From TrEMBL:
This is AlgX/AlgJ SGNH hydrolase-like domain-containing protein. It comes from Geomonas propionica. It is found in: Periplasm. Keywords: Alginate biosynthesis, Periplasm, Signal, Transferase. InterPro entries: ALGX/ALGJ_SGNH-like (IPR031811). Residues 121-144 are annotated as: Disordered. Residues 212-414 form the AlgX/AlgJ SGNH hydrolase-like domain. Residues 130-144 have a biased composition (Basic and acidic residues).
Length: 614
């Protein structure tokens, strides 16, 4: 992270008349402070985002004389697509190193920096140099073509519907209302040997701009480490059965806003499987169960949906040389049943019905549901593998492990069977939103051998932003302990705001602050203010929250205008979560803890505060 002043800024062409839809522009920066990281030259060139799809980027406004703070990486480490995109470059000094800002903001004054790395005498690499890590040019080309095809298809659909998302959405209101009326009575049906039940259907705008921005940032984080991201949003089961419980025309989508989200992501170079619903509909009569329809509120995929997702992903990962080169694992399929895994979360906790639905003599309602599991050559089911050697990394929550992780029946296992490459699997139950932050916690070495990171998302994740890596890496920052609060001292340092203390929050010397919902099935939230110690000598501060593992609370902290957030996970082994903020004149942090349960209380054991001299 550096601070400096822009001394020369290349003129950015007009987006609306430029022959290229995407463009970066360059600016010379004279660096005043190296706040963290390695030595860099005192003078360098920043390659700044200008516009994409002829829409100006937030960074398009910088001008000569602006003082900025930026987190930068070598431009040579950026993806090939970025390096080959048009640049407005009027800088004649070719000896200056090119840097790419991951984050950049205008500032009013420079930080009073203490000890910092010395400036590099000369650039570590000339302009135009490429990263030492070998790039798969064929895979990069195929990836670009795939994104282009998917984007063209969505644009054609939009044009066929008049070119207006809102009018397209409104034109389908009758079908959505018809489906909603059916939804009230929970109809189910066997069609030949395939069982279907009505399920949730996204009826509103379906996603938030914050989610799109955070997923783009996650993609950029991986791209800077030469890892591609492939996203697949697992549909709500209502998206697979909407035409079976309404008169929705064949091939139509009840909520085109989902396609608008896909379009925004594709235009930002995020690869997302856009045709998963048509694929699932084309395959839904090949399986007795696509989802667990016997419980309308149950969202996890059954064998059918898991297979379809794995097939779509397998087609894409086979473009990578490093994946094709892996000797194929010896895997085969075995017929297994839910009766072999009754202690799984789905059956033991969610209380779903592990037996076949009634109404088909071929599948008796007294028999356990059967499906295929992936087994190794030593007759063991393929379970979760967490290492750092596989070129395929799968990240996600419980949607990556159903119908049964224990029995090798899930998206990840089916992907291994179809490709012959067993992925490493980074998993957090109930917390897709925490994936980017969790991955950053593993460190860059965890990604060194990856070609691709696959993210099968839960459908509801699109409502809010993902937890992005903190602005300061807590594992690398030179930090100083400033304060620590536990047991009674926690009470002295915080002030509860929106809940009576005796109703939702209790204190014990051994368990700290315990937040517990008042109703058995309720989800509550609590808010408190933490008074900060004096932090004037620091530029940033780190808050470490030590909590008891096992809950899935959402912890949001606000300091001035800055917000940082972590989603805890039922399967998270770590006790420590970190939040990072720049030091301001504000002397407190406001915490909001939501998704507080009665059966799984949230226990805050300790708060540690560290200062970071940047």
């Amino acid at each position: 992270m550096v601070e400096g002043v822009l001394t020369q800024v290349s003129k950015l062409p007009k987006a609306e008349t430029n022959p290229y839809p995407d463009c970066y522009y360059t600016a010379v920066i004279e660096i005043k402070n190296i706040l963290s990281g390695r030595s860099v030259p005192k003078k360098a060139v920043l390659v700044l985002p200008g516009f994409f799809a002829r829409q100006y980027a937030p960074e398009a406004h910088f001008k000569a004389g602006d003082m900025v703070r930026a987190t930068v990486v070598p431009f040579a480490s950026m993806p090939e697509k970025v390096r080959q995109t048009q640049q407005a470059d009027e800088v004649e000094d070719t000896e200056l190193e090119l840097l790419s800002p991951q984050q950049i903001t205008a500032i009013g004054a420079f930080t009073s920096a203490g000890q910092q790395p010395a400036f590099a005498v000369s650039p570590p690499a000339p302009r135009g140099a490429v990263t030492d890590k070998k790039r798969d040019n064929n895979a990069a080309s195929e990836r670009r073509e795939q994104i282009k095809r998917d984007l063209n298809q969505i644009n054609q659909l939009l044009e066929a519907h008049g070119g207006d998302w809102d009018k397209w959405y409104k034109s389908l209101e009758k079908h959505r209302n018809q489906y909603w009326q059916q939804f009230q009575s929970s109809p189910v049906k066997w069609i030949d040997d395939s069982f279907f039940g009505i399920g949730e259907l996204p009826l509103d705008t379906a996603y938030s701009p914050d989610f799109v921005r955070s997923l783009v940032a996650f993609k950029n984080y991986l791209s800077a480490r030469n890892v591609d991201l492939i996203v697949l949003r697992v549909p709500y089961k209502g998206e697979i059965t909407d035409d079976l419980f309404s008169d929705l025309p064949a091939g139509e989508v009840p909520n085109p806003y989902l396609l608008r989200m896909y379009k925004e992501l594709l235009e930002a170079d995020v690869e997302i499987v856009t045709d998963i619903v048509p694929r699932a509909k084309a395959s839904r009569f090949k399986f007795p169960l696509m989802y667990w329809y016997s419980d309308r509120s149950e969202r996890h995929p059954a064998e059918g949906m898991a297979w379809v997702a794995a097939e779509a992903l397998a087609e894409r990962v086979k473009r990578y040389e490093t994946i094709v080169a892996v000797p194929p694992a010896k895997l085969h399929l075995e017929k297994v049943s839910t009766g072999m895994d009754l202690n799984s979360f789905l059956w033991a906790t969610e209380k779903c019905n592990p037996f076949w639905p009634k109404g088909n003599s071929k599948y008796k309602a007294t028999d356990y549901v059967t499906f295929h599991g992936v087994y190794t050559d030593n007759q063991k089911p393929l379970g979760r593998k967490l290492g750092s050697d596989s070129p395929i990394l799968v990240v996600g929550s419980s949607f990556t492990e159903y119908p049964s992780l224990k029995l090798g029946g899930n998206i990840t296992s089916y992907l291994a069977y179809l490709t012959g490459v067993v992925p490493d699997m980074l998993y957090r139950a109930g917390s897709d939103a925490s994936i980017p932050r969790m991955l950053a916690r593993e460190g860059d070495s965890f990604l060194e051998k990856r070609a691709v990171c696959i993210f099968p998302m839960v459908p509801m994740i699109t409502a809010s932003a993902l937890d992005l890596p903190p602005v300061v890496d807590p594992t690398k920052a030179a930090r100083t302990s400033v304060a620590s609060y536990a047991a009674e001292t926690l009470v002295q340092s915080i002030k509860l705001r929106n809940a009576p203390k005796d109703a939702i929050c209790t204190l014990s010397p051994s368990e700290g602050l315990t937040f517990k919902a008042r109703e058995a099935k309720g989800r509550e939230e609590a808010e408190f203010i933490l008074q900060l110690p004096t932090l004037d000598k620091y530029s940033f501060f780190i808050i470490e929250l030590e909590t008891k593992p096992g809950d899935a609370a959402i912890i949001k902290a606000t300091h001035g205008s800055k917000v940082d957030m972590v989603h805890k996970s039922y399967s998270q082994p770590d006790k420590i979560d970190t939040l990072v903020f720049p030091v301001t004149s504000e002397d407190s942090v406001t915490f909001n803890i939501s998704n507080i349960r009665s059966d799984i209380p949230t226990q805050l054991l300790r708060i540690n505060i560290y200062g970071v001299e940047r």
